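User: Reviewer 2 asked us to show a designed sequence for the structure in our supplementary figure. I'm pasting the structure tokens here. Could you produce the per-position amino acids so we can include them in the response letter?
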């Protein structure tokens, strides 16, 4: 049998430089044993720079017309799909993309040939906003740099607070400083202002080194015990907390996946991954694994290149994965994930995560989100973290 060719769109990320390898590493785990050397899949990577519309469309054309791939995959932004979907449909090929959930799904990304595995960060933001208003009251503040403001996570947070009854929330966008940290130039003055005018809570969205830098400045400012701090779920990742572990302190976040969960489906992923790689998996490995696990369930149809059957199975299939039930076709209704509101405490001996409540998610096509799609027709084309 000829291997199934998967053309893999590979964007650059200075924040997560190994994300492409991590996605593939997770994908191959369900096939790591039991096939006696049989080569089932062949990955054909295609560099797409930072994932802009032109780069992605040209890469998809090359994969389809030159490499003749069976499946197009990789990390993409919903913002580029208007140029990609016609290319997929013209050739009647299958596409299976990944995204972190920086944008809400919309009607513009729907196609019977195109599937998505989303981490649904927007769901975590909506749930965190809903909980924040119920827990701390009205008139909180959202703080972010220009980069995060180009996505819809902060909008989902705001609508979460509105859904809980909020009538007022402050937004603060840090001025952009080209080529330098967006934190060091402006945060000290803002933290001094917050000391004099404390909001009900402070929700922050930063990425990479800027996430660690902000947390360090917030702790040193002495505001830790004066203003409840809420961070985006990616800011709570261990690698971004390690630089500030010695400072101690705690904050809140919303989580859609607990790597330490003892649920059978999660352990079936985490334990073999640690055995094969000697490390713990992260979000990109999780997304790749879920695709691989789903493909392992429909392997006979894939091997037979029975694409109508493959598409039907993907349209209707629900995978009992490490983070709970997931599905991959927006038109069938993305399953609302299980969300936990967590209190994270950091110290030099390690981080602890304690669930303090359950999060409230909602369907992506709820009328509550109509305003998000109507209020801004622009946004960053690059997938989240691809800078």
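Assistant: Here is a per-position design you can include in the supplement:
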């Amino acid at each position: 049998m000829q291997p199934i060719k998967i053309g893999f769109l590979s964007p650059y990320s200075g924040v997560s430089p190994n994300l492409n390898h991590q996605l593939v590493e997770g994908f191959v785990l369900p096939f790591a044993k039991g096939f006696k050397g049989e080569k089932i899949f062949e990955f054909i990577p295609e560099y797409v720079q930072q994932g802009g519309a032109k780069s992605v469309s040209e890469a998809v054309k090359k994969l389809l017309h030159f490499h003749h791939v069976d499946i197009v995959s990789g990390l993409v932004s919903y913002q580029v799909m208007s140029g990609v979907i016609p290319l997929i449909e013209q050739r009647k090929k299958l596409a299976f993309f990944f995204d972190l959930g920086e944008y809400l799904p919309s009607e513009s990304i729907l196609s019977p040939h195109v599937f998505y595995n989303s981490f649904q960060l927007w769901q975590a933001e909506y749930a965190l906003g809903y909980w924040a208003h119920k827990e701390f009251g009205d008139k909180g503040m959202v703080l972010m740099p220009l980069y995060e403001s180009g996505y819809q996570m902060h909008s989902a947070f705001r609508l979460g607070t509105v859904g809980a009854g909020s009538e007022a929330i402050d937004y603060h966008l840090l001025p952009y400083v080209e080529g330098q940290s967006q934190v060091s130039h402006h945060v000290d003055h803002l933290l001094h202002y917050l000391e004099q005018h404390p909001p009900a809570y402070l929700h922050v969205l930063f990425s990479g080194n800027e996430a660690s830098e902000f947390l360090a400045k917030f702790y040193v400012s002495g505001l830790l015990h004066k203003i409840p701090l809420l961070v985006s779920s990616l800011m709570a990742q261990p690698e971004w907390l390690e630089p500030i572990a010695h400072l101690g302190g705690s904050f809140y976040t919303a989580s859609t996946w607990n790597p330490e969960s003892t649920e059978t489906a999660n352990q079936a992923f985490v334990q073999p991954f640690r055995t094969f790689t000697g490390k713990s998996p992260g979000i990109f490995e999780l997304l790749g694994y879920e695709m691989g696990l789903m493909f392992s369930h429909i392997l006979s149809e894939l091997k037979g290149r029975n694409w109508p059957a493959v598409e039907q199975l993907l349209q209707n299939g629900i995978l009992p994965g490490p983070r709970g039930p997931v599905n991959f076709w927006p038109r069938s209704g993305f399953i609302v994930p299980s969300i936990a509101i967590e209190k994270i405490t950091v110290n030099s001996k390690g981080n602890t995560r304690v669930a303090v409540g359950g999060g409230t998610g909602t369907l992506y096509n709820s009328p509550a989100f109509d305003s998000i799609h109507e209020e801004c027709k622009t946004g960053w084309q690059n997938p989240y973290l691809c800078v």
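For the response letter, you might also mention the following. The CA atoms of residues 139 and 343 lie 21 Å apart. The two ends are 39 Å apart (CA to CA).
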